[in-house]
Protein 1
Amino acid sequence: MAQLIRIPVVLILLMLSCSLSGCFGNNIFTEDKKGIPGGLTMACLSSAKYTSMVVEIDHDSGYMPEQSSIDLLKTRLQEVCDKPNGIEIMLTETDFGQSGAWTADDVRQQAWQHKSTDPQTGSTLYWQALFPSGGYSNNDVLGVAVDASTVAIFKDAIEEAEGPFFSRPNAEEIENSVLVHEFGHLLGLVNLVYTSPVDHEDKEHPGHSNNEESVMYWAVESANLGNIITGQLPDDFDNDDLNDLAGMLSGEIPVSDQLWLP
C-alpha cells in the first residue's frame, strides 16, 4: 500500500497538476478542430484509422524533458493505445520567443504555430507537449492540457516544487508524474468526455481520480507549511482508469465530443 502523500499549499500542484481552471486552461470548449482534452481519445485508443502515433515535444533551449519522462510516457501510451505501427517521440528544440507567465491561450497559440503537422494526418495521430521557459499564469500549475492534442509542462515550476528534504520526490520524479497525468487528460480521464460506471472521480476536483495510487489523483492534504512530502508519486493509471479506457474502446461506455470516431 503506497503512503498517502501529504502536500503543503506551496506545493499544491506538485503531485500532478492543478485546479480545474488551471489544469485544463480556460476557454477550452471550442467548436473548432482543436477540440477539448479527451477529444481525440478514441483516435488514440483505436487502430481503426490511426495505426501509428507521434508525440511531438517542443522545448525551449535548456528545457528538454528528462529521458525517464520520455520513456515513461511512451510506455504508458503503448499500454493503452492500439498503435500497431508504433509510437514515436519526436524532440524539437524550439524558440517560442516568450518568457514569463503563460496563459492557456498562449500555450494553444504557440503549439499550433509550431506543430509539425495537423494532429490527424493520414493514418498517424500527432499529440504535442510544450516544455517552455517561464511558468503558468497560476504559479501553482505544473502542467496544463489546453485542447484535444496539446499539453504544456512547466519545468521551472517543477524545479521550484522540488523540496530540500531527502524524503521528498525530486524534480525528475515530479516531471514523470505530471507528464503522464496531462496525457491522461488527453485520454479523457477522468470523466472529461464520458461518465465512468465507477465512482472514482474526486467530486471537489473534477477531472481527477479520488485514488491516491492513480496518476490522475488530485491531493491537497494540509495547509501546514511544515508538512513534508513522503512516499513515491504515482506514475501509472489505476484499474478504474484502465477500465474506463477499455470501456470507451469497446463501446460499453459512451464517449462525447470526439473529433474522430471509429
Protein 2
Amino acid sequence: MTSSPPHTITDEKNTWLCTVCGFQIRGIKPPKGCPNCHSPSGEFIPEHKEIFSYNDEPFDVLLINGSSHRAGNTGLMTDIAEEILHEKSVSYKRFNLNEFSIDHCWCCYAVRAQSCDFPCRNRSDDMHTFHQMLHKAKAVIIASPINWNSMSARLKIFLDRTTCMQNLYHLNKTGLTDGKIVGILVNGHEDGGIKTAMDIFLNFQQMGFILAPFGISYRTHGAEYSSNEDRNFFKTDQLLREHTRGVVSNVVELMKLDLEHTLKGRIIPVSE
C-alpha cells in the first residue's frame, strides 16, 4: 500500500513551495499562510527536484485529488477515501495534482489523427507517469471540487491529457483502459455537483471505464453560507463520510470481479 511520500520537517531551512500559486519562502517550517494567495500552511511542501516516476509495480487503485488545494475540502474527501482503502487492505497510490507539472494538451489530433498516439508526444512533464499508472491500476477514484459548475482547471487539463489513450481506439490499436473501474467524489460550496461528476465520468466512459454501482457522490454546503464556513461543515458532516465510504467500497467490490480481464476481447469500442 503506497501513497505520496510524507514531507518531513528538519532543523535546517527548506525552500517551501505553495502548491496553489507557486510562492516560495525559506524557513525551518512552512509559514502560517501564503502571503500571495492566502492559502493555509497545509498547502506548502518542501521544494524538491526529484523526477516523478513509476516502477511498473502493479497496484489496485489510483486515487486522485484534482483540487488546486491539496489541504482543502476535496483533500478532506480524498483523505477519507484513503482511510477506507487502507482499512480494506487495498493497494493504492494517492496523488494531489497541484504537486505535479502537467502541461495543457497539444491537441495533436486536430493536426493529424496519427500524431495523437500512446505514449504521448509530450514527455517533458509528469503526465506520462500518470499515463503509465492509469494503464496499470485496476480502478481510479477521482475527487474534485466544483468550480463554476464543473471540475477544477487542473483536473480538466489532466483529463485532456488522456486523449492519447482514448485515441488508441480510433487508430485501431488495443485499448489500455477498457473494463477498468471508476468512482467519482465531488464537493463544493453550492450547485453543480452532478454536472461536475458527469463531466468527469464522460472522459472515463470514452476510455472504456465502468462506473461502479452508486459510484458517484457529491456534497455541497449551500450559497446561504460563506465559504469560510465550508471547512468545518465538511469536516464534521456524517453524510459526506458515509457517501464517500459507499463509493469507495462499491469501487472495491466491483474491482474484485476482475471485469477488465473477464471482458477482454469482448468489448466493442464506441468512442468519439
Protein 3
Amino acid sequence: MRKLIALFMLFGMLFAPMITKAQEETESEAEATEEAAPVQAAPAPTPVMTDDDLVAEEQSFHQVIKDKFIEGDPTYMTPVLLCLILGLAVALERIVTLNLSTTNTKKLLAKVESALEEGGIEAAKDVTKGTRGPVASIFTQGLMRYSEGIEMVEKSIIAYGSVEMGRLEKGLVWISLFISLAPMLGFMGTVIGMIGAFDSIEAAGDISPSLVAGGIKIALLTTVAGLIVAIILQLFYNYCVAKIDGIVNDMEDASISLVDILVKHKLTR
C-alpha cells in the first residue's frame, strides 16, 4: 500500500508541471481570442415617425396644393375646381342609384314563378311590386298586360325597358359635360397666361426669363388642373356606363325568362 501511494506521488510530481503549463497556454489563448474579437457596435435605433411628423407631412401636402392653386391664378383655377366638385357630386349620386337598382334576377324569377303556381298573376304582381329595381318594374308592367296576351306582355316589356334605361342614364350627360369642360377651361387659362407673358415682354421692351416664366407657369398649372379633373371624372363615367350595361343585360335576360314562365303558366292552366 505504501509503495502504491509513493508511486502515485511520483507520477504527480512528474506530470504536474506539464498540466500547469497546458492550463497556462489555454488561458493565454482564450485571452488572445477575446482581445482579437471585434467589438460589435450597438445597432442604431430605428427612427420612429410620431403623429406630429405625420401631421406635418399631411399639412405640407395640402399647403403645396394650396400654393399651386394660388400660383395658377384663382380666376382660372376656380372654374376647373367647380367642374371637379359638381362632376363628383353627380357621379357619386349615379353610383349610389345604380347600386340600389341592381337586382338578383335569378332569385326574383324564382319568386315570381313560385307565386304564379301558388297564387296566380296577382300574387306575382305583389312580389314584383315589393322588389326594388328596374327589373322588377318591368316585370310589373308585363304582368299587368298578361290578360291581353303574351304579345302585349312582350311589347309592354320592351317599351317600359326603354323608359327604365333612360332613367339609368340620367345624369351621365352632366358628367360628360364636365369631362369636356375642365380641359377647355384649363386651355383657356393657358392661352390667357401666354397672352399675359407676351404683354409683359412688350411692356418691358426686353425678353426677360422672369417675365416669361410667370405667364408660362400660369398656363401650365391651369392645363394640368384641367387634365387631372377630366381624368378623374372619366374614371367615374366609365364605371357608371359599365354598371348601366350590366343592369340592361340583366333586364333583357330576365324579360325573356319572364315571358317563358308566363307561357308555361298559361299552357298549364
Protein 4
Amino acid sequence: MIRLVVSDIDGTLVPEGCTALNPEYFEVIRALADHGVRFAAASGRQKTSVDAVFHELSHMIYYVSDNGGYIQKNGIPMKEIYLERNDLEEFLKEARELDGCRVLLSTLEGYYTDDQDEAFHKLVFEQYKGSGGVTDDLSLYTDRCIKVSLYGDYGSGKLKEQLYSRWKDRFAINISGERWLDVNSLDANKGAAVEYIQKELGITPAETMVFGDNFNDISMLKCGDRSYAPASSAPEVRAAAGYEVAPYEEDGVLQVLKQLLEEIRDEK
C-alpha cells in the first residue's frame, strides 16, 4: 500500500510560478492522511514560496524546498544543506559575467537578489510570493545560502551549457524551468530528500508515489515504484518515471490521487 506521496509543484501541479492550487487537492490530501498516507511537496522553490501554495496544510505535510536543500515536517525544520561559501562566491563571479543572467540566493529566511530589474522582482516576490528582498550586497547572504537560482533571459539551457562542465564537480546543477537553472550542494537533491523522509517514516519505494516534470525531479522519480511524469516532459524525465500523468491543466495528479484514495478505501 502507498504510504507516501511526493509531488513537484511547478509544471506538475500548477503553471510555472503560480501559487493557486485547485482546492480539491487539499481535500484529497486530508482524506489520504486519514488513511495513513503522508504527503510531501517537493520543489526548487524556497520554503516561503512552497508555503504560499500549501500553507493550509503546513501543519500536516512535509516541505522539501530548494531541491532538497531544506526539509520540514508539519512546520518544524528537519534538515538544511548549505553551499560552501568560497566556492559559491567564485561561482557567482563567473555567473554575473554571463549575458542575461540574473542571480537569486535562497536562504532559510527567503530569497535575496541584487539584480535591479523590477520585472524580475515582481516575478520572484509577487508571482512566486517568496519572502526576502533586494540587497546592495549579496555577500551578506552567501554564508547561509541553500540554493542559487539563475534566471536566464535567453533560457536555462543556454546557462547550463555555459556553466555545467566547469562546475559539475562542485555543485549539483539542474534545469528547473524554461528560464531557471538551480545550483545546489552535491549532497542536496530531491531524491536524497525523499530517501531521508522514507527512512524517517520507515517505508520503502514500493510504498511511495512520486510526481515530477523536470530535470530536478529525476532523482526523486527513481525513489518510488509508482512514479509519474507528464507527457510534455523531456524524454529523460519521462524515462525516469514509470507512468504518464495528464498535465496540470487537467489536474492530472489530482486524478491519480483520487484513484489512490479509492484503491485504499476498497482495500479496507
